[in-house]
Design brief:
It is built from one helix and seven strands, in the order αβββββββ. By secondary structure, it is mostly beta strands. The longest helix is centred in the first third of the chain and has 7 residues.
Length: 136
């Protein structure tokens, strides 16, 4: 799939992409209060703690919301429409909502999903990324 690629060396999000490169799902978790902080911030939004190590979590969740995309707002998506953009609550990371593409199966509220990894490509460059798939 062709897609504008993320910056793997961006300080706040690089850990997410480096984990995905190993087919692992990880989110920053405060070392002080243990809250997951997604989308990443420099300090924990709950307690202000500065130590937010990347924590691997189970790749399972629940479908929280979705939208069927029919119009490509970026040229990179033109060949991909229609697709389902989905939000999943990650079971082992309370408060985390992961936005990705839903693969296989029609969306349904509270449906179980698993995270699986695939390639995003832009020309010769590519990166591993998480996708959501309905669990039968």
């Amino acid at each position: 799939m062709i897609f504008p690629l993320p910056d793997l060396d961006e300080p706040l999000t690089g850990g997410f992409w480096h984990a995905a490169a190993r087919d692992l799902l990880a989110f920053p978790q405060c070392a002080s209060c243990e809250r997951f902080c997604w989308y990443p911030e420099p300090r924990c939004p709950a307690c202000g703690g500065p130590d937010l190590p990347w924590t691997e979590v189970r790749p399972a969740g629940t479908l929280y919301s979705w939208s069927v995309v029919h119009h490509a707002f970026l040229p990179a998506f033109a060949a991909q429409v229609p697709f389902v953009a989905a939000v999943a609550a990650i079971d082992s990371a309370p408060g985390v909502r992961l936005v990705s593409r839903l693969l296989g199966g029609d969306p349904a509220m509270d449906a179980p999903v698993r995270v699986e990894f695939g390639w995003l490509r832009l020309g010769e460059d590519r990166v591993r990324a998480p996708f959501l798939r309905r669990v039968p």
